[in-house]
Design a protein that fits this description.
The chain is α/β, with parallel strands linked by helices and about 475 residues long. Strands 3-2-4-5-6-7 form a 6-stranded parallel beta sheet, sandwiched between helices. The chain contains 15 helices and 21 strands.
Length: about 475
Amino acid sequence: MSEQTRVAVSQQQMRQQHQYAQMVRTLLDQKLGPQRYYHIRTYGCQMNVNDSQKLAGYLEQMGYQQTGDETRADLIVFNTCCVRDSAERRIHGHIGQIKALYEQNPDLIVCVCGCMVQQEGAAQALQQRFPFVRVCFGTHNLYAFPQMIFQVLSGQKRARSIIDAPTVAEDVPVVRDGVCAYTTIMYGCDNFCSYCIVPYVRGRERSRDMAQILDELRALRDQGVHEVMLLGQNVDSYGKGIDGASFDKLLEQADQVGIDRIRFMTSHPKDISGRVLEVMANSRHICHQLHLPVQSGSDAILTAMNRRYSAQRYLQIVQQARALMPDIGLTTDIIVGFPGETEADFEQTLDLVRAARFDSAFTFKYSPRRGTKAAQMDNQISAQVKKERIVRLIALQDEITAGVHQQLVGTRQVVLAEGPAARSPGQYAGRIDRGVTVNFKSQTDVTGQLVPVEITQAKRNTVMGQICPQA
């Protein structure tokens, strides 16, 4: 592929989309009246969640109201992921289930978008398999969503728009829910890890202007947001192609905005700089949490993955981060069963996990993705071996996580309460600075508040605490 491109959507193009949104609103007022509903199903990563929030922003601009009950919906969106084959199969199954709703309501507008659709030929195949899907679009033209909805409401049978040019669009409305907010700082990826489809469906790296990001952060601060997650496929590459911009400079400026907590993901071990770690350590608001995917502890497998760092280099970064921030929470991603992975390779991964002592790890069995180099490699690993290895890896990480949590018992932490605990009636849940989730009891609704808590008990996935008495 060519060098990094950065195609900015013009202000005129964005004004046209807002005009389309208003025209949709007028059409729907005439056709459905004021009561019309949308439902969005989101699959995949935080980037997809943020994209869905933008789609919701457009839909509410069009006069739709959100519903959690898809049987009430006049418009349903599937925002898809294709990182793993299992996710793609599940999405197809869920789309197929909507056929019954469409048969009951032929005016139902079903939209499918996102990474799965951006794959070559996927949109056409999808609409052939599911003729009731009326709108299909990829990852690069989300900004044109109102135009596509207007087209189908104006009598066009289907709207399908897949473009190859990676874009950066500002002034897209966003509906955020919950205490924490996402802010995308860059799009795409230039790394081409041999197992990964992301560069092909998200495009090459392109960064937003720093001024636009900082304006967004100030607006979120003024809205009362306490925590923001800065998003990018590889945040450490932020600023390439923009004079004077870099990720460490962005973090320095973001820290000055005054939002209580700022997190970021995802970092790449080959790109993260010592300067970024120093900014984290010296900041007032950048959380001491780092998600740093290692993927494997074997240099041979890392080379085959095209990761461009060694296990030793990775552990050096961990050591540097902990020297600067002894309280840092470190999390990671690990793939088992990559083509050619021997038992010795896997044992090296276990050794690295023991040395790094992650707070937690997202673990995956390797899944071949069409169009990637790894899918064509020899020595594919059997499903049984993958299963056996991931069980061993999870058992080791669970043991380490339990130890990390136990070390927190007796400490005082500040928890940003995100709402009632999902599985613990009468309790609230939130995260501390390093990212560990804490459950605690409260007699009053503390959602959205920073609560001082003493950690009293450690469990596998969470820790328990009690609110500290006022001094």
